[in-house]
Amino acid sequence: KQEVTQIPAALSVPEGENLVLNCSFTDSAIYNLQWFRQDPGKGLTSLLLIQSSQREQTSGRLNASLDKSSGRSTLYIAASQPGDSATYLCAATTNFGNEKLTFGTGTRLTIIP
Amino acid sequence: GAGVSQSPSNKVTEKGKDVELRCDPISGHTALYWYRQRLGQGLEFLIYFQGNSAPDKSGLPSDRFSAERTGESVSTLTIQRTQQEDSAVYLCASSDVGQVDEQYFGPGTRLTVT
């Protein structure tokens, strides 16, 4: 059974700093690894998706990496802004054809102006 | 449509009542998922529909929970005889299986059982 862990549960950093959010998973036979942000009272916004054959994906100030052998993914946020404050979730799908996501419990990020 | 939509956005119900939650997926997406997020907890998978295949119901917590989907369109999640522990945000997602399978989420329905 896939288990996804995110540490730390909460993180506060000053505006402008670069930061890394961590995600670990127990089953390396993943199909996709997806990063989301969740704002209070709202649904999930997909940020980046890394397929099992890929090692990283980039979108603007965001870069996500995937290391299946070590069971880890990281989300790098460059030049953080107050608008980046949200909860960040990583989630994995394991088998093609059974695409339910297994979620971590998230990291609540606060960017201090 | 432009995105996944869900209704109602908020629902308050008394313990023991039945509720229906609705999800409209992105047009053309063959896969539809229901998840729930209880306060302070992570998202839990509930049920998955893919085309005309039998749904994956492995995440439904009890037989009080059921869901239907007509073709590749609207889905309804029904909770019978609601309990206080059913209070959660219920999220629906859809994806275009066969492509990247990226899941797109709706805004959720916040269910409060009093």
Describe this protein's structure.
The complex is a heterodimer of chains A (113) and B (114). Chain A is built from no helices and eleven strands. The mean pLDDT of chain A is 92. In chain A, the strands form two sheets. In chain A, strands 2, 4, 5, 9, 10 and 11 form a six-stranded mixed beta sheet that branches. A five-stranded antiparallel beta sheet of chain A has the order 1-3-8-7-6, with no helix packed on it. Chain A is mostly beta strands and 113 residues long. Chain A is globular and about 40 Å long. With 114 residues, chain B is mainly beta. Chain B is built from no helices and ten strands. Chain B has strands at 5-7, 10-13, 19-24, 31-37, 43-50, 65-69, 75-79, 88-95, 104-105, 109-113. In chain B, the strands form two sheets. In chain B, strands 2, 4, 5, 8, 9 and 10 form a six-stranded mixed beta sheet that branches. Chain B has a four-stranded antiparallel beta sheet with strand order 1-3-7-6, with no helix packed on it. Chain B is globular and about 40 Å long. The termini of chain B are far apart. The A-B interface holds A 31-32, 34, 36, 41-46, 49, 51, 89, 91, 93, 96-106 and B 4, 31, 33, 35, 41-45, 48, 50, 56, 59, 91, 93, 95, 97, 100-108, 110.
